[in-house]
Predict the structure.
Amino acid sequence: MAQTRGQFSSKIGFLLAAAGSAVGLGNIWGFPTQAASNGGGAFLLVYLVLAFVLAYPALMAELTIGRYARANVITALESLSEKPGLRRAGWLSGSAAVAVAIFILSFYAIVAGWMLSEFLSPLAAQLGAGATESWLDSAGFARNALVCAIMSGLTIAIIARGVEKGIEAWSTRLMPLLFAILLGLIIYVLTQAGAGRGLAAYLIPTPSQLLDPQLILSALGQAFFSLSLGVGTMLIYGSYLRDTDNLPRMGVSVTLLDTGFAFTAGLLILPAIYVADARGIAVFNDTGGLIAGPDLIFQVLPALFDTMGSAGAWVAIAFFALMSIAALTSAISLLEVPVSVCVERWKISRPRAACLSGGAIFAISLLIIWQFEALFNTVITVTTVYGQPLLGVALCVFAGWVMQRNQLLNELSKGHPEIEKTVFWKIWPFYVRFICPALILLTFVQSLR
Ligand code: PHE
């Protein structure tokens, strides 16, 4: 079977694909808005520490299991042990990961669709299509369903083409474009009045906030969501890595790219918030807190772009193109989770598997759009607040307790023969066995209170 499986053709291809998965709405929207409403600099610092100290070891667990087992998440976790009890636990955890990936994608595709309509609406205005513009701004069921359908269709089309021609080729095209747009926007926003205050709020931590449990909790959740952990995405991408690739180094690069992107996105969003404030746009609510969540992106930023005269429309188009691209490269990594299961376990052809899984997930998205009030936030909470951390613990336990130390060593030595002598090997196996599960559980229990 090994020969028929897809594989990334180069290191850079894997890096861009994994970074494409990791860098998404979580970085460009989630991280900066969380930072803005949690004390700016303090949140940034705690987030960076947690990303390397806790999320990186968990990412390594996924990449190592994936490449060792060379299979989708269910088969991979099942195959780690011969014992029937552990195999059943592997099957259960793998299936739960697939379910969580499916539900994350079902809401992610809706938000991705909103980004697309924010991108298309000023474009329609520029082209003089006023009726299309107001329909795109209408936020009705039909509009939400259509833009979600377009994003889901693009995701399915890329995944149907496979690992090298689909995931790798498109991530390699889209990620540099994403970064270029981001840099262009930062340069523009930093030249506007008010930007300096935003930079200061973002970069200078308030020491007293650093140990705030609520802040630590949000930063950890953010780090896990941002690195696409706990749903088997990184596991399946790891399974497409070549044996010659050095896993710890790949993991570090992905973590650096992801946190680097989040950091850079903060350089755009926080100054933009203060630029908006300087222009008299309401960015703070009655209690003095920052308008967070969807309102910030969908009201404050477009209002800011509106004050920028004729350049504003193009800035808006560039910004929401950025968001749509970031969302797309993450969405494909989510769809790969169920598709790899269909292909490998049920022997369905990849294009069919992509259409079937993508179609089913789109049906769930439609249901959420239809029953928005009841379902949208619930699905997000169940998957990202409960599902991801708990499955993150499960994956660490599989790497740390079910896999034998020498299995781990063998796998990691493949691309790094000297691994035994490294600091990584001295710390990581212990870390992933004890520290990661304990700390994730601790944060999880805290979040329930
Ligand atoms: N990491 C992505 C983001 O930051 C979201 C994601 C979560 C993607 C889980 C895949 C799996 O937007």
